TrEMBL record:
InterPro entries: AB_hydrolase_1 (IPR000073), AB_hydrolase_fold (IPR029058), TAT_signal (IPR006311). Pfam families: Abhydrolase_1. One of its GO terms (molecular function) is 1-alkyl-2-acetylglycerophosphocholine esterase activity. Transmembrane segments: none annotated. Residues 1-32 form the signal peptide. SUPFAM superfamilies: alpha/beta-Hydrolases (SSF53474). Keywords: Hydrolase, Lipid degradation, Lipid metabolism, Signal. Residues 142-265 form the AB hydrolase-1 domain. This is Dienelactone hydrolase. PROSITE patterns: TAT (PS51318).
Length: 380
């Protein structure tokens, strides 16, 4: 079940997030099609001591229009909130992608990421390690926001988000409609379809990139306003990492941030404000040897030159999408003969996911353990 929430003010009481977990949500089907012969793709299980509950929210910002389609008239977001939970009646694991989103993604996958197969995958069959309807444990750990990469939906960050929640954090994964490959809303309206698809193209220009980052930062700050959050962490991949770093610069409610391989400049070379100035709050810049280039080095070096609590880390034998669910899914597609070795290397690198998945999880979790720790986990 999806909760729609249209705030009358930009900031609501801090108890809103906890209250939203009181109602239960009906689990979705495990697979829309069950295609014969399609490999069953699996996401790695969380490593923490807690079961993870999931709640999907529909948020509407009436103070902004949608930058990608002005006929909509408002800015709508879909988010998933993951929290440590207890087993409950009917608390089945949710699918990574709903049947509608999976069908749409099946058409778009190889367009958004050319190495992915154009057919032969049942994207609706993969289950996330979170349960709809699972009652939350008492209390609430620190909150982390997640912003996915440009063209990606929040669902492709399911594994890392669930792992963090299993260790006690509350994780809010945020979709950026019009940017994400596909975003499914609770309903269809005359001004927009039920499932919105991306408007982004491979030859993104500086103006589009600026709109994308500005919109993502505004989206993230709206989520903080709507859910009444303060002193949170934020992490993001690619454009989401760019937005996470810039949001840290703009909003004092963000205590620490992780940029998973996002540039800190515009495509024309203009540094973002966060790179031009020193940050006084912790920021981790995490990248791979496969994606590293002169532009990334230049923009990250500009920020690192100011000093402050900024660190850089690198994963070797890896590539850009190793920070997402593709780290686990792409090697399975390669093993099933649906992707080439070159395609696998171009997306996640050649390293074994049994090494890369724990490495990414440990990197992000250890950073937030230092800077936004779960001090008093709820009782199991």
């Amino acid at each position: 079940m999806t909760t729609s929430h249209t705030p009358g003010r930009r900031s609501l009481a801090k108890g809103v997030l906890a209250a939203l977990f009181l109602a239960t949500a009906a689990p979705g089907p495990a697979s829309a099609s069950g295609r014969p012969g399609a490999p069953l793709l699996r996401l790695p299980a969380p490593t923490g001591p807690y079961l993870v509950g999931a709640r999907v929210l529909h948020l509407v910002d009436r103070s902004r229009n949608d930058p990608w389609d002005i006929t909509i008239g408002v800015r709508e977001l879909m988010v998933t909130v993951l929290r440590p939970a207890s087993p409950g009646p009917g608390s089945a694991r949710v699918p990574q992608l709903t049947p509608g989103a999976a069908e749409t993604f099946g058409f778009l996958a190889h367009l958004v990421h050319p190495p992915l197969p154009a057919a032969g995958v049942d994207w609706a069959a993969t289950l996330a390690h979170a349960r709809a309807g699972a009652p939350p444990l008492p209390g609430r750990g620190p909150v982390l926001l997640y912003s996915p990469g440009g063209g990606d939906a929040r669902t492709m960050g399911s594994s890392l988000a669930a792992d963090l929640a299993s260790h006690g954090w509350t994780v809010v994964t945020v979709d950026h409609p019009g940017d994400a490959s596909e975003v499914e809303f609770p309903d269809e309206r005359p001004e927009r379809p039920r499932i919105r698809t991306t408007v982004l193209r491979p030859d993104i220009d500086a103006a589009t990139f600026r709109t994308m980052i500005d919109t993502r930062v505004a989206d993230l700050r709206f989520v903080l306003d709507t859910l009444g959050l303060d002193r949170v962490g934020i992490y993001g991949h690619s454009a989401g990492g760019t937005a996470a770093a810039q949001a840290l610069h703009e909003d004092r409610r963000i205590a620490a941030a992780v940029n998973l391989e996002g540039y800190l400049d515009q495509p024309d070379g203009e540094l973002l404000p966060v790179a031009r100035r020193k940050t006084d709050r912790p920021l981790l810049l995490a990248g791979t040897d496969g994606f590293r280039d002169a532009r990334l080095d230049r923009s990250w070096a500009a920020l690192l030159a100011h000093g402050g609590p900024v660190a850089r880390r690198q994963l070797d034998n890896a590539h850009h999408w190793v920070f997402t669910d593709y780290a686990a899914l792409v090697p399975q597609l390669h093993a099933a003969g649906l992707m080439t070795a070159a395609g696998r290397a171009a997306m996640v690198g050649r390293a074994d996911p049994r090494a890369t998945v724990p490495a990414v999880r440990d990197l992000v979790r250890s950073f937030f353990t230092r800077h936004l720790p779960v001090r008093a986990p709820a009782s199991r």
